[in-house]
Amino acid sequence: LRREWINSCIEQLKSLLSPEFLKQQPDSKLEKADILEMTVCFLTQLQQQSQQKRNLLNNFNELQTSCDENLREADFSPLSSTVHTGISKDKNPTNSALWRPW
């Protein structure tokens, strides 16, 4: 029963392997050790790809956070600079004309 269970699991691994791995030995019957070795290689590649994606995502998040911080620090209001400079230049309220929309 134990051998049948192991053989069944190895056949399942073989069916899960991508066709690229199975093409490595098209003419010969794959040994159980070959299937296990290919599985280890395949899982290693998946793990490396996953790590690369995590690194890219972390870099993107850091860049996005940095951009968000820079945008918060920047003042894009078109009135803010004119209002501040107008107030600082005209400290005497009698000399400045008030703008009234009516």
Automatic annotation (TrEMBL):
Q: Where is this region: Disordered?
A: 82-102
Q: Which residues form the BHLH domain?
A: 1-46
Tell where it localizes: Nucleus
Comp. bias intervals (Polar residues): 93-102
Q: Which SUPFAM superfamilies match?
A: HLH, helix-loop-helix DNA-binding domain (SSF47459)
Q: Which GO terms describe its molecular function?
A: protein dimerization activity
Q: Which UniProt keywords apply?
A: Nucleus, Repressor, Transcription, Transcription regulation
Supply the InterPro entries for this chain. Answer: bHLH_dom, HES_HEY, HLH_DNA-bd_sf
Task: Provide GO CC annotations from the record.
Answer: nucleus
Q: Which PANTHER family match?
A: BASIC HELIX-LOOP-HELIX TRANSCRIPTION FACTOR, HES-RELATED (PTHR10985)
What is the name of this protein? BHLH domain-containing protein
